[in-house]
Amino acid sequence: MRLITEIKELRSEVAGWRDEGFSVGVVPTMGALHAGHMSLVQAGRGQNDRVVTTIFVNPTQFGENEDFDSYPNTRAADEARLKAAGVDVLFAPARSEIYPDGFSTRVIVDGLTDCLCGASRPGHFDGVTQVVCKLLNMAGADRAYFGEKDWQQLTVVRRMVRDLNIATEIVPVPTVRAPDGLALSSRNAYLSPEALAVAPRLAQALAEAAHDIRSGMAASGACAKATEAVLETGFAKVDYLECRTADGLETVEKPDTACRVFAAAHLETARLIDNWPV
Ligand code: PAF
Known about the structure:
- The N and C termini lie far apart (41 Å).
- The chain folds into two domains: 2-173, 3-Layer(aba) Sandwich (Rossmann fold), CATH 3.40.50.620; 186-277, Pantoate--beta-alanine Ligase, Chain: A,domain 2 (2-Layer Sandwich), CATH 3.30.1300.10.
- It has helices at residues 7-19, 35-47, 75-84, 95-98, 117-120, 124-139, 151-163, 193-198, 200-214, 219-232; strands spanning 2-4, 24-29, 50-55, 89-91, 143-147, 169-173, 237-245, 259-267, 270-277.
- The longest helix has 16 residues, at 124-139.
- With 278 residues, it is α/β, with parallel strands linked by helices.
- Helix 6 packs across helix 7 (151-163) and helix 9 (200-214) packs antiparallel against helix 10 (219-232).
- Pantoate (PAF) is lined by residues 28-30, 58, 61, 128, 131-132, 150, 153.
- Pantoate (PAF) binds at residues 28-30, 58, 61, 128, 131-132, 150, 153.
């Protein structure tokens, strides 16, 4: 695995692969890798001749009082895992490489970013689309891999790629869960053993809400019941727990199209998100 920190080197490596007729996959990450990230890498490995993984903790997608400064960093272990998984290039640029002095361009996807995490983390998706647009341009990959745990991110990135005619296919990869149902997340590292025992309740509540909605309960009632259940188990705050359409993220009361139940909730210092199909 080659470690690259400069954009021009990444472009030249990918151009060499292209000359040889190789297909390329890219897996954008912020590091602190877990089995969920590795399933993205595995999907990329299976579908492409060459795989690039990026590690860049993107400052522009964090709000002022969020965890940018304390975001988990397991760099040595990350490199070992990526190497063992057969990644060809790890692209790990410095902040100045991505955002040089005078950088002033924003990429904004309207509508899809107003709800759910967009409402509770204003500006978050503007930072995500800004950096993902840049990473996709730099990598020039055939395919890019995103986890379904961050369903809204996946939806927003897909819309951006369509709207801006970026020639990279966005490939969704199913959420990886612990045996108790907890969706794997780098932020689970913030949880104490006691909180780790409570955290799976979020996925259970979403599954119950989805079941209730499928059984005919109005979505608002099912989501209110699930919110109460989450708070009763020890979560400090629920930012949202809502049923929305899978593609357009529109609210629904009686689903007649593909829908999902989405939640974000605070447990100790972690903000956990998850979603479940109805
Ligand atoms: O999902 C993430 O880890 C980040 O939002 C991403 C896509 C790497 C952009 O910084």
